[in-house]
Design a protein that fits this description.
single chain, about 100 residues, alpha+beta, five-stranded antiparallel beta sheet, 5 strands, about 25% helix
Length: about 100
């Protein structure tokens, strides 16, 4: 729960967009709280984000300790989900690179 940087990788063989992925799966690891349709809309990733030059979307879960930021990023039939906590997490994120 306090690790500043974590990544989950999911198969995305249908190349779903971030919005469609969130609509279908609505997943933030280690987050419990509002599971209503309104909560789903409020917590959807809406802010633009870039990781290793790739466009994504982020959202902050401000009611969880550390106010984790989650970034969804689709790439090569995968959906990457980054969880960033605090300055340490942001620093790690800036040095993250996808390898070819």
């Amino acid at each position: 729960d306090t690790n500043p940087f974590a990544i989950w990788v999911f198969n995305n063989e249908s190349n779903l967009t971030i919005d469609k992925w969130h609509h279908n799966f609505w997943y933030y690891p280690f987050v419990w709280g509002d599971f209503t349709s309104e909560g789903k809309f409020i917590l959807a990733p809406k802010d633009e984000a870039t990781v290793s030059g790739q466009p994504g979307k982020s959202g902050i879960i401000d009611y969880r300790e550390g106010k984790p930021k989650f970034i969804y990023l689709p790439k090569d039939q995968k959906m990457y989900l980054f969880r960033i906590i605090g300055q340490s997490g942001e620093k790690i994120l800036t040095s993250f690179k996808f390898l070819k």
